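Key idea: predict the complex, not the pieces.
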Amino acid sequence: MKDREQGRHLPRLRRRYPRIPIVTTVATPARVLVVGFGNSLMADDGAGPEVVRRLNDGHLPAGVRAEDGGADSLRLPGLWRGEPDIWLVDAVTAGGEPGSIIRLGHDEVLALPQRHATAHALSLPEGLRWISLSYREMATVRYRFWGLVVRRLSLVSGLSDEVGAAVDRLVLEILRELEH
Amino acid sequence: MSQSARSIVIPHLGRVEGHGGIHVKVVGNTVHEVNMDIFEGSRYYEALLKGKHFLEVQGIITRVCAICSANHTVAALTALEEALGITQSERIHTLRGLLLLGATIESHALHVFALALPDFLGFDSVISMASKYPSEVAFALKLKQLGNRVQELIGGRAVHPINTLVGGFGKIPRHRDLKALRDELAAALDPLMGTVELVGSLPVPTWAAQPTVYVALRPYEEAFRFRGVTICTSRGEEFPIASYRDVIREFTVEHSHAKHSALASGETYMVGSLARLKLWGHYLGGRARQAFDRLFPGGVVDNVLLNNCAQLVELVHCVEHGVEVCDELLGMPEVPREMVEYEVRAGRGIGAIEVPRGTLFHEYELDGEGRVLSANVITPTAQNLANVERDMRAAVENLLGASEPIEDARLKLNLEMVARAYDPCISCSVHVTRL
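Result:
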């Protein structure tokens, strides 16, 4: 028992059936990296990480990964494993009522206002541009963006009702888009 | 005859939610008011930590800051371990040192290349700078990622480290990974020295220069280090770390959410790269010494705009010393994990370390069950704030006193350059996209 617990000296399992090569006509699923940005201790800013957590709790299709990007979009290259598509989820401060979901395509997200997010961080579009300038292999990545309009940004753990409900809808929306 | 009043307002300097920033009021050529307001997040975290078990502290404190999470983690662990009577093993001490180097590489690379250098080269952003300096701009982000990679290897993941624990590490990096990291660090040195040449060729304006008191920790050994044993000032004073609350007098001001700091004498002071070089630059060696000599040919002089150059010198030091630390770790036997055994007890501990923006203090008091009774965090940005306002006042007075009149737009840019030179940490604990 001790050996079993330590994972050593286990008897080799006998293969019960001969190995059969798998031939499939199903196309290889598109590889997608979903990244949620934000801080889960700052109320609705935690929407991005919460979407990621929910996606990982469910059954993501093969070839899809979901990662918590924290509060620094410039860490994206460290999370990227060659996926041709990166889908970004972030809290946004305008664009509708709290809990609204804003969906932007590749060109639209890169055209967002390039204002510094903080004194030592860049705006998301500026960060994405810098990444494509520095990592030629990422220059062809196609981005999609979902913004969840926040109700509150303060040091409170947990999402507001509106943003919590929006996270539910967005997780379903992302899963639907992954099927196509 | 009444003189015309002039207000210079920079409303959004690093404020995510938009209130605050810099406000300067000038009547004639006399500066009447200089206020800089920031959101200083760590204060709010102190309340959140009260009542939490000490093992929960890291998971919370790592979210204080997007770019300083490893620094806050090391400061918190140092304080908690002192409270619990834990002595770090040599390997733990060395690994944490490497973690701090990685965090400084990440932070300084971003600040020097993306936030400060465009000002000096006349570009409005790092992206527009790429039109003339494409290789420097590409190298900068790769250097930042190298800093991330150091933290990922030691902290266990890229965002919010989980491998750093009270008493040790859950997993010790494998030698093959350390070797790969060592080679990456070594390869970054030559291009980094190229940047030193570029920056060394740029004139640094002197309109913000004025006599300054500098504060930094005395390194724990006779070398340039980010961990120290006492608090030293450029006036020759030296204080035990345990007396930090007496040395650093915090006070509130009406115009800011963040507390300001001054020495007991009432003088404001500066912490950060320039302070470290002023006090301990003589300990630099190798390529970092060459960088120091190139950028500070006459030694450190009073001018906050030179803090950008000081950060570049520290970048060279961090990369160069990172190679040495990797070699040191590779000389130790490979082990899967290392933890010091300890018992939970009541106690109080202080962790003081040098982080990219200056000296960071964490203090925790624990009860017999290991719950946090009190927490105190003093960040470098909070310590620098009063000095930022002092330097801004001097800068405006110097600029207004110049023979040629200066437009508001130019004044604003120059004030932003002063604020940016301090590399202030402003509400970076959130990531919100503004539409």
